[in-house]
Design goal:
49% of the residues lie in helices and 13% in strands. The chain is built from twelve helices and eight strands. Helix 1 packs across helix 12 and helix 2 runs antiparallel to helix 3. The structure holds guanosine-5'-triphosphate and magnesium ion.
Length: 313
């Protein structure tokens, strides 16, 4: 598994982005006119770029069109692609690693967004590709099935590892305090000299303590042992939820400083443009994409490939 946008991944991604792609590709081959730009606008809306960003992009394109900057539709689409890449480009697409392991990765997101599956993929990637040992904390203690699901994933990852590398789950009983699990998992990660500690969390309010308060508490507990943790806070967004992702990000950001997005289900009926909107509105880079339900179905987010998959012919 090479975590780049290898051909198969781009093809898969194209499938997920097919609706928006269809609208964009209908533009190629047409003669250039104001009408073509209106078609771009429609395609941007349908791709879930969002109203404000679409308006901004379209105004810029219209202005440049009036100045005669585009000689044909191809150059118009090229300008659009450049704009996308410019918005998405950031130096922050890599996972932030702590100079003194374990690196703590906190994973948050609403119910069903894909957190647990994405954690499994990330653990698998870090263990098999980067040779890291991983401790996973089952801090979604709401239902037994959630803990079992994570346990199965960790065992599957473990079965693929060689030598003394490991992927171990730390869990408590269903219904126990998530912060207590985090505390033990932090201890275990330090004691076992793990490279990474990945923390799964609940996506719903299930006690009297509001979810966001629970997240803050969990962070405080981890910081007792690792003061600069968490080094990475990944928000898992379901790519099919579109613009709603923005408000989810805003909500979680009130509780914990988000450092990246894991965009799950990009292989589904995703519109994909949400990536651009999130980066533009919130300044949070998309670091990984989920492109299926298997351990290998993770792609490191690559700006140019994404723009090509969405806007390419
Ligand atoms: N097609 C596809 N399905 C995914 C992807 N990531 C997760 N899923 C599916 O989405 C569903 C929810 O995934 P979970 O990982 O359980 O989500 P969660 O956020 O942990 O959910 P809760 O623990 O219930 O809050 C599962 O059926 C996953 O198989 C992806 O990248 N592509
Ligand atoms: Mg889960």
């Amino acid at each position: 598994m090479v975590l780049r946008f290898i051909k198969g991944v781009v093809e898969k991604l194209k499938g997920g982005l097919s609706k928006a792609r269809g609208l964009f590709s209908a533009i190629f081959g047409r003669s250039l006119s104001e009408e073509t730009i209106n078609m771009v606008e429609e395609a941007l809306f349908s791709a879930d770029i969002g109203v404000s960003l679409t308006t901004l992009i379209i105004e810029e394109l219209k202005e440049r069109y009036k100045k005669g900057e585009f000689k044909d539709t191809d150059s118009l689409m090229e300008a659009l692609k450049e704009k996308f890449v410019k918005i998405l480009e950031s130096n922050g697409n890599e996972l932030r690693l702590s100079p003194s392991p374990p690196t703590v990765v906190l994973v948050v997101g609403v119910n069903g967004s894909g957190k647990t599956t994405s954690i499994a993929k990330l653990a698998h990637y870090l263990a098999t590709e980067k040779g890291m040992s991983v401790v996973v904390a089952a801090c979604d203690t709401f239902r037994a099935a959630a803990i079992e699901q994570l346990e199965k994933w960790c065992e599957r990852v473990q079965s693929r590892l060689k030598g003394d590398k490991f992927c171990r789950l730390i869990k408590h009983e269903t219904g126990s305090d998530p912060a207590a699990v985090a505390y033990d998992a932090t201890d275990a990660a330090i004691a076992r000299r793990a490279d990474v500690l990945i923390i799964d969390t609940a996506g719903r309010m299930h006690t009297k303590v509001p979810l966001m308060e629970e997240l803050r508490k969990l962070v405080r507990v981890v910081q007792k042992k690792i003061p600069d943790a968490p080094h990475e806070v990944l928000l898992v967004l379901d790519a099919t939820t579109g613009q709603n992702g923005i408000s989810q990000a805003e909500k979680f950001r009130e509780a914990v400083p988000l450092t990246g997005i894991f965009l799950a289900k990009l292989d589904g009926t995703a519109k994909g443009g949400i990536v651009v909107a999130i980066k533009e509105r919130l300044g949070i880079p998309v670091k990984f994409a989920g492109i299926g339900e298997k351990l290998e179905d993770i792609a490191k987010f690559d700006v140019a490939s994404f723009a090509e998959a969405l806007l390419g012919r």
